[in-house]
Amino acid sequence: MRENRSRRLLALAGILGAVLLVYLGVLYNIQVNEHEEYLAKSIHSIAQEETIEASRGVITDRKGRVLVSNRSVYNLSFDSSLLKTGQDQNEAILRLLELCQDQGRTWSDSLPISRQAPYSYTLDTLSDSKKLQFLNYLRSVDACNDALVSYMLKHPELADVPEAGEEEDISPTPQEQGEALLDQLPGSAVTSQMLLDAGLSSYYVFSQLREELNLPSGFTMEQARMVLGIRYELSLRRASGYTDYTLVEDVDTAFISMVTDGNYAGAEISQSTVREYETTAAAHILGLVGPLYPEDLENPFYDDYPQNATVGKSGVEAAFEEYLRGKNGRRVISTNSEGKITGQYYATEPEPGSTVELTIDLELQQTVEAILAEAVTAMNKDGLTDRGAAAVVELVDSGELLALANYPTYDPSTYRQDYTELSEDPAHPLYNRATSTPYAPGSTIKPLTAVAALEEGIVSPTDKIYSPYTWRYPGDPNSYSNCAGGSHGWINVSQAITKSCNYFFSEMGYQLGMDNLREYLSAFGLGAHTGIETGDNTGTLPENRPGEDQAPWAGYGQANQAYTPLQLANYICTLVSGGVRREPHLLKAVKSYDNSQVLAVGNTEPVQTLELHDATLEAVKKGMYGYTQPGGSVAAYFQNCVVTAGAKTGTSQLGGDQKDNGVFVCFAPYDDPEIVVSIVIEHAGSGAALAPSAVKILNAYFSADNVSGSITGENQLLP
Question: How large is the C-alpha radius of gyration of the chain?
Fold first, then answer.
């Protein structure tokens, strides 16, 4: 019996051992061989997937000084998917917005109805795509759609109806006809007046939306408008599969505690990054970032962007979006039945954007901005307060832009808060005058006219032309131009530049003819985009009026031609480099976020090389050099310059009782040009008034840090 018991025990032990081995095998298989699969399944059943925003790349100047970086922040969003059964969406939104109000936190929405009484349309300030968004939103409300259909049947001419094809056997109903017309309605036709004519007053739409979205009758008009704005934003995002909308960015810990402790339904606090501006300089260069709008998603460039992404909207931020943008990560968050996070699983780690190194020298940029501010402030003592100014500093041998300054300017870190004030400022601080505002060049165009006349054989470097006070168009004594400096007698082309003789260049323009002159202007890059990455204005080449030859006036900078300060700087660079034209650019290099790779560099290669005779270049440069020497118009200012330079002023006539604009271009050193400076100051009275500013910029650049040898200026010893 004892033996039988022992056998049974041994058998039982064997069975238990076998069971244990099987269990251990299954456990090993689950935990080791199929760990990822089972983990994913377990998480999937209790978790949601999140996108982890990658931080944007850093922007630096040419010396590695950080201009724009990132700062971690917390944002408040409303997510309708977080509402539990029985929770009213409208009540939840209102409760959250009232908390924001109480704490002085503002939010924005794009519903084109004003946020305060009398609740009028703000539709006419929107882009065509945003107008169509609102139109489609109204069409989702039956009463509004019926009114729109009736209106379009009465006004079919408003629609862009395609050409008629083959007739269909079945005639559409009036409702179908109206719907089809609405489908073809261009955004430009969607105006406040059109909606009013259709019987859709803002108050009527307001009441229909309240009813459609089941807003409680106890909501005041102000409360209803607050909630309707958020519901509108949520509807725009719902079309792209998103259920949340960011109300407030960069909330503090105290605010977060209020949201968390107050159990605000639908509220979500998420971590993100915002741009941190390390300098107030170069605002127009750096540009701004902002949310990706629904209409932006129509651009294939943004195909893989989430709808709530932050993207570059202007300046460098927009131009180099493909580099600055990081790669978002993915995270799965497991939660319990109470919604508390119980675990996190990273499927993909986020990768920061690349570092963009600009050609700009921050110290020089700051100096140039300060010089412009000083000059304009001094001029404003005459009572004019709407002056603007711009200055460009470009490297001759590469096209790299060392400074691109505007006045007035703004602080990009407070742009949103200051927008209303900035947009209403008569001096237009948001204008990028350096790249986007064309000005009549005045006499700064004379060196180019001289090049054209010399290359075409109209005059040689040694030929002298008698230049009295008045030039008259042959055969038309009533058509003439005067020389501001009086009669200059017998002068050659270099002397004509130095003396800025209108007679001489009227004659050169006349003999060249408009077509020939325009050809040379175009060859130097005028009247076309420069190629700068952030975009620019093409400016305007001169042209003849019907039945009138304007070439004599175009020859000395008149005849309705206009160019940006950047174009003027680039044309002088082309001239003093011997005819080598390069694209002015802001990109020095793009490096991976960890600086392990160089991903891109700026284009320094010539885009065009003009075949110009050495004698032509020397004659023109000599004339500009004479402008800064004793007897030249700006010699008194350039005696304080630490380097020899060539220059030319321009006075852009505005007519009436307005003070003329001042234009100035210069290059230095004279013997081996390294940089070009162009300046425009509105209502400066004359180009010569800008000479002191130009000298200050040259002196700032040609310091011990920027030059290898000792450079002394006219009648000046350096310590």
Answer: 35
Within 8 A by CB and 6+ apart from 196, the residues are none
38-65+278-356 folds as: Penicillin-binding protein 2a (Domain 2) (3.90.1310)
Give the start-to-end residue ranges of the domains of the chain. 38-65+278-356, 79-158+174-266, 362-415+427-701
Alpha-carbon dihedral sign for residues 439, 445, 449, 454: negative
CB 666 within 8 A of CB 677: yes
Long-range contact list for 171-180, CB < 8 A, 24+ apart?
Answer: 174/149, 175/149, 177/153, 178/148, 178/149, 178/150, 178/152, 178/153, 179/149
Render pLDDT for 65-78 as a digit per residue (tens, 0 to 9): 999 999 988 989 99
Q: Tell me the DSSP string of 60-102.
A: E-TT--EEEEEEEEEEEEEEGGGPPTT--HHHHHHHHHHHHHH
- Count of other CB atoms within 10 angstroms of residue 704: 9
Query: What letter represents residue 70's amino acid?
Result: N
Here the tokens at position 689 are 């008034």
Residue 579: strand, helix, or coil:
coil
User: Which residues does residue 675 pair with via DSSP β-bridges, in sequence order?
Assistant: 395, 668
Instruction: Report residue 136: phi and psi, to 5°.
Output: -65, -35
User: What percent of the chain has pLDDT above 90?
Assistant: 67
- Look at the block and give the residue holding tokens 């034209």: 581
According to CATH, what is the number of the domain 362-415+427-701? 3.40.710.10
Q: Which residues contact 189 (CB under 8 A, 6 or more apart)?
A: 158, 159
User: Would you state the pLDDT for residue 21?
Assistant: 67
pTM higher than 0.85 = no
- pLDDT on residue 43: 44
d(CA 265, CA 284): 41
Distance CA 202, CA 195 (A): 9
351: which strand partners?
Answer: 327
- 372: Cβ–Cβ under 8 A, 6 or more apart, which residues? 389, 390, 391, 405, 406, 407, 679, 681, 693
Under 8 Å between Cβ of 356 and 320? yes
3-state DSSP of 524-578:
CCCCCCCCCCCCCCCCECCCCCCCCCCHHHHCCCCCCCEECHHHHHHHHHHHHCC
